[in-house]
Amino acid sequence: MFWELKKRAYRVQHKVMKTASTIIPFPQPVLLTGPGSVKKLAENIRIRGLKNVLVVTDKVLMQLKLADGLLESLEQNDVNFTVFDDVKPNPTIESVEKGRKAYKKNKCDGIIGFGGGSPIDCAKIIGARISNPYLSVRRMKGLFRVFLPIPPFFCVPTTAGTGSETTVAAVITDAKTHEKFAISDLKLIPKIAVLDPELMKGLPPHITSTTGMDALTHAIEAYIGLNGTKFTDENAENATRLIFENLEKVYKKGSDLKARNNMALASFYAGAAFTRAYVGYVHAIAHNMGGLYGVPHGLANAIILPYVLEFCRKDAEKKLAKLAIAGGIGSKSESRKDLSYKFIKKVKTMNKNMKIPTFIKELKKKDIPLITKRALDEAHPDYPVPTIMTRQECEDLIKKLLP
Q: How far apart are CA 310 and CA 16, in angstroms?
């Protein structure tokens, strides 16, 4: 009886959140797209009157000299810059604080997030801390807790996956507790996002695959959840179609700029969908795999996604069937049940074709109760999932991920 009352309370909150998402004006970043578009960003920054920006990235991207085009164009436009590259694959509160000190020490007046989701998320929270010095990172956890606007913020994604360049969310890890959590606020959406496929053509196949499956997870969870709107559904459908058509192409041939560009757009569309319609249990569980074991977020999502889809297939059958048709893998003449199974099979086949495992090798049985608790604490009541999990159901699902 108590559980039924809790589920009803969750659904009431979901309805309130859906109504709010249709009323609240979500800002959209200005898009710079196409090969070489990263070099256009500096001119836009100069026109805005900025003199000194903090470029937040990671050491691997700096070693690969991927940021050279951006940095050269900043110099050509007389915009000074400081590079902060101390960002880990799962960024920590410590990285944020180091970045904040670098911003203040060098008297910066804007921020560029350059890289995958980790540098971009770290850059967002650095901005939030700069404008809100009396709020700790932990105090900003959750929805709409960033009080003051962040400094002018720009994003240059180098992977087609997180969609962080258009979302309200930033994910961070507390290294002391190994807890990974999200900060979500409209103030974290960047002014400009650059989608330049040339920055992505050198990505290794395993990063291409897992970041692409991250984008697919965003699209699917936004679509099958209860808070979708016409806008989010259209974006999720477009993202799914583009990913089905292009991800395995770029996995096999990373230099295919047309397919890379399509994947960049897919990531952006998926981000636009989930930032308004939210995600679900795949993300709640994956965040904890990242926090506890350092499992890359896209890889965790890719592995967990089929299991969660099988769990909620019956309740999500109608939506999965529609998404199968939108993704070009089914027709209206087929039954919803068959289409929903076909969709899940497609996800599994893509994982298999791109050598993504069916288990998480780092997972330890003794940690499952803690992972379950943290995952459900994150998901309930905020995520409008099609089927609400009990603690036992969540534990049983996570056990399937054991090596």
A: 28
For 280-312, write each residue's pLDDT tens digit.
999 999 999 999 999 999 999 999 999 999 999
Tell me the C-alpha distance between 125 and 378, whole Å.
19
Packing angle between helix 93-105 and helix 117-131, nearest 10 degrees? 60
Is 169 among the domain residues?
yes
CATH number of the domain at 369, please: 1.20.1090.10
Identify each DSSP E strand in 196-315 by its residue range. Answer: none
**How many domains does one find in the chain?**
2
Q: In what order do the strands lie in the sheet with 142-143?
A: 142-143, 179-184, 169-174
pLDDT tens digits for range 156-206: 999 999 899 999 999 999 999 989 999 999 999 999 999 999 999 988 999
Nearest partner of 29 among 262, 275, 217, judged by Cα: 275
Instruction: For residues 92 and 221, state if they share a domain.
Output: no
Percentage of the chain lying above the pLDDT 70 cut: 100
- Based on the domain organization, do 322 and 233 belong to the same domain? yes
Q: The tokens of 204 are what? A: 């290794």
Please check whether residue 16 is in contact with residue 173, taking contact to mean a CB–CB distance below 8 angstroms: no
Q: Are 164 and 271 in contact (CB under 8 A)?
A: yes
Look at residue 202 in the predicted model and tell me its pLDDT: 86
Residues 98, 135: one domain?
Answer: yes
My answer on whether 211 and 191 are in the same domain is no
Structure tokens at 307: 């299991």
Q: For residue range 236-268, what is the model confidence (pLDDT) as tens digits?
A: 999 999 999 999 999 999 999 999 999 999 999
3-state secondary structure of 192: strand
Q: What is the pTM of this model?
A: 0.94
Domain end (from 184, 199, 214):
199
Of 347, 277, 279, 336, which is closest to residue 310 (Cα–Cα)? 347
Q: What span, in angstroms and rounded, lies between the C-alpha atoms of 303 and 179?
A: 20
In a domain, 29, yes or no: no
136 in any annotated domain: yes
Give the C-alpha separation, 347 to 308, whole Å.
12
Q: Reply yes or no: is the peptide bond before residue 151 cis, omega within 30 of 0.
A: no
Burial class (CB in 10 A: 0-12, 13-18, 19+), 201: middle
CA angle 290, 344, 299 (to 5 degrees): 20
Q: Which of 155, 172, 199 is the last residue of a domain?
A: 199
